[in-house]
Amino acid sequence: GSGTLEDPYVVDWAPGEAENPYNWSQLRRWILTYQLAFGTLCVSFASSAYTGGIEAMRHELHMSTVVSVLGVSLYVLGFGVGPLLLAPLSEVPINRVYSQRIVFLCTYLPFTLFHLGGALAQNATTLLVTRFLAGAFGSSPLTNAGGTITDIWHASERAIPQALYAVAPFCGPIIGPIVGGYVAEARGMGWRWTFWLMLIFASFAPVLLRRRARRLHAESGGTVHYISKFDQGRSLKLGAIMSVNLRRPFVLLFTEPIVFLFSAYIAIVYAILYALFAAFPIVFQQQRHFSTGEGGLAFLGIGAGIVIGTAINPFVMPRIYRNACEKSPDGKAPPEVRLITGCAGSVLAPVGMFWFAWTSYPSIHWIVPILAGAPFGLGMNWIFTSVTAYLMDTYTIYCASAIAASVLLRSTIAAVFPLFTPALFGTLGTQWALTVFAALSLLCAPLPFLFYKYGPRIRAAS
């Protein structure tokens, strides 16, 4: 550039520059990563902790079974609605007000306070409306955190941070019914305390280049113009930016095969998890006469699989990535390398579901179907972490919109599944109803393999 308004200087980072997020200290980046992961955990925890006291809640507020389950569905639906605005706002370059940090701060307080609606609700309407709003405002970590992790970690360092961020949406829903169940049945507490617990739990780089460009412009007395390298060829007018950014998640979802197919895959796996929140009480509490707290403990099998997957990822993925870098002519691993663990997960998830389906008879010892949750949880973990990493590597600074598109689809489908699960069990019986879920996960199993082989060709055409 020449420093004029029409041809501004292009701003990039100098090697080793301290302001570059990639050059921040390890401690600073890890603290930020843990904060993002914990925020995601809090939001997802609240989605299922609600189910711990659902029976007592249903009787006190005079709700039908379907209406009471709406508390889960509307919260998860909020996950899909919120990112349509929050993810594009995190990509607005014109002012730091729209940065990812400000989006987190401005949405997390309402998310926390809307739990009061459940704790103090005197009718079903108040409960359900505040659940939806809590889900919508709490959705920002589910999408924007992925963009932040991409901005502060090099691709070669990203495996562990990505795993921590990606596992939180699944750990939270597993912990929720266990804690919520025991809180709801504890003497002197009851179902309202599950909401107080949610309240307590919740309360507990491109942006910097744009700031630098504005600062350099100001230091020149306004006579020399600069632009971030990410904004070359783009309009910086707010109206144009918002128009493009608000449309981007939909454009990616419906025009990018990578985003659509993997979003559909994650949506089905995620929906199966939320359908199990309606299925486990049938299998373990109605048929095996577990208490509410014991019914929550049945999720430990899935939780164990998630923990195992999280523990293995830091040892496996960095090694795979380094080997791919060494074999690559340009020293950079292709995004498809991220899908290797997803290929293994796509096999494990349906194995776990078929195992659970046909060992759920009351005559079979209760530990057998609980153990079936381990391969499902492990497979689900690896599918989610690998696909999220693949989207981050493929769409880089627009990964927040790509992940928002994924969250929209998965949250919409996951919101519906718990509503028809009881009817499905009543019509088909426990074993065949669970087999339907297993077959859905099996139907999607080839996707990671296909994209691992044909992904470069598909990306080149996108």
TrEMBL record:
Domain Major facilitator superfamily (MFS) profile, residue spans: 32-456
Transmembrane portions of the chain: 31-53, 65-86, 98-121, 163-184, 190-209, 258-284, 296-316, 337-358, 364-384, 396-420, 432-452
GO cellular component: plasma membrane
Keywords: Cell membrane, Membrane, Transmembrane, Transmembrane helix, Transport
Pfam families recorded: MFS_1
Family: Belongs to the major facilitator superfamily. DHA1 family. Polyamines/proton antiporter (TC 2.A.1.2.16) subfamily.
Identification of the protein by name: Major facilitator superfamily (MFS) profile domain-containing protein
